[in-house]
Design a protein that fits this description.
Layout: E1 4-5, E2 29-36, E3 40-48, H1 59-63, E4 66-68, E5 71-76, E6 79-83, H2 85-98, H3 106-119, E7 131-140, E8 152-162, E9 173-177, H4 195-210, E10 215-219, E11 227-230, E12 234-239, E13 242-246, H5 256-267, E14 272-275, H6 279-287, E15 291-298, E16 302-311, E17 314-317, H7 325-338, E18 349-353
Parallel strand pairs: 1-3, 9-10, 9-16, 13-14
Antiparallel strand pairs: 2-3, 2-8, 4-7, 5-6, 5-7, 6-18, 7-8, 10-11, 12-13, 12-15, 15-16, 16-17
Helix pairs in contact: 2-3
The structure holds pyridoxal-5'-phosphate (PLP).
The site of pyridoxal-5'-phosphate has 14 residues, from helix 5 and strand 15.
């Protein structure tokens, strides 16, 4: 893939890196590449960051033809590193396949990111817990209202410096179990990282926020009985010594943090079971004291301790509303590898020298 580079004439003033928040600031450039059924992928380019012009009839606006990814770059002594970017490339293509969007070569996916970061390297924050969030995405832009698989699409990458997710330390969050709305159903798009899943989840998320909860825990869409995942995170429980995480039945997003946690936990000698976990089993485990710890896993928060679980208006406290020992150990291990403070014995980090 040959990338044409058009540099920005004036560079933006950098925001205060001590006060970044999440996804509010964007770097000086972005990557774009177009697809058509006739030409395949073409016109790979890095251009100044700015608005994108799209035809009003484009498939993305009317039929939700959109997928995305999320990963991070961490500053190192001699450049930067990313955490398992080829896993994101693979998942991107699985999402594309589900939504009838075109495939991108895994190497091109990673190279687009690398070339863009190399140009905007000075935007990678180096304060504790901060990183450069990478958002690759693809949308269909056929200029017709006819409903059919996409013939034209654009692949884009934008970058956003983000602060530590835990400005006030690793605090447990309050979660409510949603029994009305569902996020995804088996056979649907739950395993794809697509905007449509988020559109379906907004209402429950908003209702939860109004009641003071930070996220929604989803149940399966068929029986509303089995635990699926939390907001934009996968979820894990330590119940009577066993680590339980919902198995990937097609309606759960296959998180890369989830997969990495499972490997680490097994290396540490824990029994990890990917299985169906009913909400009744979970709630009784809070009542009989078997539930020791609960946490969410995802790129943004890495590991997020759960301190409250609310189901049918009843509140259940988890590990005394304090961060559990194993949750903390997992967080330290993963962030240690990601920021290069701990040895990367599994070859998970993709290092780039500047
Ligand atoms: C992205 C995402 C996750 C977490 O995936 P990671 O690869 O660990 O970041 C979990 N659930 C949903 C719905 C997601 O979109």
């Amino acid at each position: 893939m040959e990338i044409k580079i058009q540099k920005a004439k004036t560079l933006k003033e950098k925001p205060d890196f001590n006060n970044l928040g999440f996804g509010k600031y964007f770097t000086d450039h972005m990557f774009l590449m177009d697809y058509s059924a006739e030409q395949g992928w073409h016109d790979a380019r890095i251009v100044p960051f700015g608005n994108i012009s799209v035809h009003p009839a484009s498939t993305v606006f009317h039929y939700g033809a959109e997928i995305f990814e999320g990963l991070k770059a961490y500053k190192t002594a001699d450049g930067y590193q990313m955490f398992r970017p080829y896993e994101n490339a693979k998942r991107f293509n699985n999402s594309a396949e589900r939504l009838c969007l075109p495939q991108v070569s895994e190497d091109d996916f990673v190279q687009a990111i690398v070339q863009l970061i190399n140009l905007d390297y000075s935007w990678i924050p180096d304060m504790e817990g901060a990183s450069l969030y990478i958002r690759p995405f693809m949308y269909g832009n056929d200029e017709t209202l006819g409903v059919h698989a996409v013939h034209n699409a654009t692949f884009a990458v934008i970058l956003s410096p983000v602060g530590s997710y835990y400005a006030e330390g690793l605090n447990p969050v309050k979660i409510t179990i949603e029994s009305d709305d569902v996020r995804a159903v088996r056979g649907g798009t739950g395993y794809a990282k697509c905007g449509g899943n988020y559109a379906a989840s907004m209402r429950a998320g908003q209702r939860a926020a109004e009641k003071g909860f930070s996220q929604v825990l989803w149940l399966d869409g068929v029986e509303r009985k089995y635990i699926e995942e939390v907001g934009a995170m996968n979820v894990m429980f330590k119940i009577g010594g066993e680590i339980v995480t919902p198995k990937l039945t097609g309606s759960v997003l296959p998180g890369i943090t989830r997969k990495s946690c499972i490997e680490i936990l097994k290396d540490w000698g824990y029994t990890v079971n990917e299985r169906l976990l009913s909400v009744d089993e979970l709630i009784s485990s809070t009542e009989n004291g078997k539930l020791e710890e609960a946490w969410g896993t995802g790129t943004a928060a890495v590991v997020s301790p759960i301190g409250h679980l609310c189901y049918k208006d009843k509140d259940h406290i988890v590990s005394g509303n304090k961060i559990g020992e194993l949750t903390q150990r997992l967080y330290d291990e993963l962030t240690g590898i990601q920021w290069g403070r701990k040895p990367d014995t599994r070859g998970w980090c993709y290092k780039v020298k500047i």
